[in-house]
Amino acid sequence: MKVGIPKGLLYYKYYPFIETFLKELGAYVVVSDDTNKGILNEGVKYAVDEACLPIKVFHGHVASLRERCDLIIVPRIMCIRDREYICPKFCGLPEMIKNSITDMPKITELPLYINSEKSLYNWFRKIGFMITDNICAIDTAYIRALNVQKKFKSGIKDEGYETNIVLLGHPYNLYDNFINMNLIEKLHKFGVGLITEEFVEENYIDEEVNRLYKRPFWSFARKSYGAAAYLHSQDKIDGIIYVSSFSCGIDSVVIELIKDRIKDFPMLVLKIDEQTGEAGINTRLEAFIDMIDRRNIIEDNLSAHG
Amino acid sequence: MGNVYIAAKIFFDGMGIDYVIPPMNNKAALEIGVEHSPEEMCLPFKIMIGNFIQSIEQGADTILLVGSCGPCRFGEYSELQMKILKNLGHDLQFIVMDYVKDIGRSELMNRLGILISESKKSSREKVLASLRAIKAINLIDKIEERAHHLAGYEVNRGECKKFLNKCKRDVFETDNPSEAIRILESYRKNIEKVKINKNKKPVKVAVIGEIYTVIDPFSNLNIEDKLMDYGVCSKRKLTPSWWVKDAAMKVLNLNSLDLRRASKEYLPYYIGGHARECIGEAMIAQKQNLDGAIQIFPMGCMPEIITKAILPSISRDKDFPIMSLVVDEMTGEGGYVTRIEAFLDLLERRQENVSHGC
């Protein structure tokens, strides 16, 4: 059986798990190509106009896989931590795909709760049964996949740079080098060290988040806000770069919360959509880094607003 | 927000609590809201900020908000709005009504206590005030529903609309809760006396979509009034009274079973906001032999984007026309009206079974 895995959304966080699991079961795994112009165009063509860039890109990946596979993994991830959600669009992803793209092979539609081990196991068992009847094989594959995932660490933490910046944003915006136009490489070329929220310990994040009036109920929001607030309070960083896709509902809240917390500390919000021009991004990055450098030279730490 | 203010007024009148009702949503409120809100926020947030600031100008010192913890960003409204108003230099008390399971029962009672402590009435009167408010909201929603329905059959064009507006004005003018209920009840009876012509075959349309923009006439540019002017029967399931009932039944997990059943084929899970309800409504409208449905949602609304992806399939599978309208602060009335008119023309033609010219 040929199983397709679209390289979009939370693929960047969980690919070791799903790939190991399927390979262990003996399925023929097809992973879509890295995002490219063609995939993006397909996505824009199929997805509903109002959707955000990552959702459109995901549509493109699925469309590129549909003729090559018997089953495509389209996870309906409901939550990844207790009492938290991701984004409504994740919960309705299979519906969007099914109704927007024609001639689809079978896709996975069951809801997936990553926060509970039991429901996670049940989900994988059901996926497993689509491929094989051997329950022992499914169990072994599941355990192996779980171990591989546990060893997998995503995120960036650079050492030895003079200027250090927190890079925030949803994982699929940060690690998809096509849609963010090689942002990470660009920043390294500027001689800027990066740190992402994965390297801020959970208890520091919780501590910051608890100071809010209301507990944020999105996993992304909690992490981005907590990491930004903690690192800012520790005085370890020189600036914040937030990569956000246009019309993201979660970011519209989180960015405001962070801005309110850090006051006039330097922060650059990079909005990306299917029409972002690379020259504009470069100019903004250069200007931002120039500003940080000057701020470091002049000891007064001038306000970011000039 | 829609007719909620009528119920809220009756409630606070009964409780003897001072309150400020902001002016009806208007351009000025929206402009103030847009000025102080994050750019990418959705329309309801911006209008609400405008309302708050206008109320503060009229002397409000406490703001009552409902919250939620769904995946829709409505739940985060309170946090941001508190910060925005604080940064503007307004010193206010906020009362946020959240779900019990999220903040704990004692905290909820505590927050309720702050609200009620203002009132000097006995607890019997307090309960009475709440019951009256619920009754009022049910009545006004019922009157509205009938008016929207009868508009398609009325003999004298515009009578239902006039009737409805007069009703709202009369209720608003009185400060006596029992008087308000009496007025509403008499209007409820009188609406059936509007002269109708049963032989008419009006176009029937369901209004579906995001609850705030559907209920609030300012954000949807008075779509229901417009439909009444065209002599179209309009039907809307999402009303404040529906919301109250839905929230109450949610505890028992028995809320809107009909919508759940209807939406099962296309969207079998709750994904936040009222996306599932929207799909369910479209399906029910189709089963009830309505002619079409109009979906309205604010720009960037996450749950409704998903339904917008699903609705074309329903439309195709069931041969049921559905139009989506996106509203935000930049919506121009001209383009909006043109689209509604074109859609209604299409429905009318389908009725006459004209098989050409489409």
Describe, in plain words, how this protein is organized in 3D.
The complex is a heterodimer of chains A (306) and B (358). Chain A is of the alpha/beta class and 306 residues long. Chain A has helices at 11-24, 37-46, 53-65, 88-91, 93-100, 117-131, 135-151, 171-174, 183-189, 202-210, 219-234, 249-262, 278-297; strands spanning 2-5, 28-31, 71-72, 76-79, 106-107, 111-113, 163-169, 192-196, 239-245, 267-272. Chain A folds into 2 domains: 2-151, Rossmann fold (3-Layer(aba) Sandwich); 163-297, Rossmann fold, CATH 3.40.50.11900. In chain A, strands 2-1-3-5 form a 4-stranded parallel β-sheet, covered by helices on one side. A 4-stranded parallel β-sheet of chain A has the order 8-7-9-10, sandwiched between helices. In chain A, strands 4-6 form a two-stranded parallel ribbon. In chain A, helix 6 (117-131) crosses helix 7 (135-151) and helix 11 (219-234) runs parallel beside helix 12 (249-262). The N and C termini of chain A lie far apart (60 Å). Chain B folds into 3 domains: 18-117, no CATH class; 122-200; 202-358, 3-Layer(aba) Sandwich (Rossmann fold). Chain B contains 16 helices and 6 strands. Chain B has helices at 4-15, 27-36, 43-57, 77-87, 100-103, 105-117, 123-150, 159-173, 177-190, 211-215, 223-229, 240-250, 257-263, 275-287, 302-318, 333-351, and strands at 62-66, 93-97, 204-209, 233-235, 292-298, 322-327. The interface between A and B is large, with 40 and 43 residues.
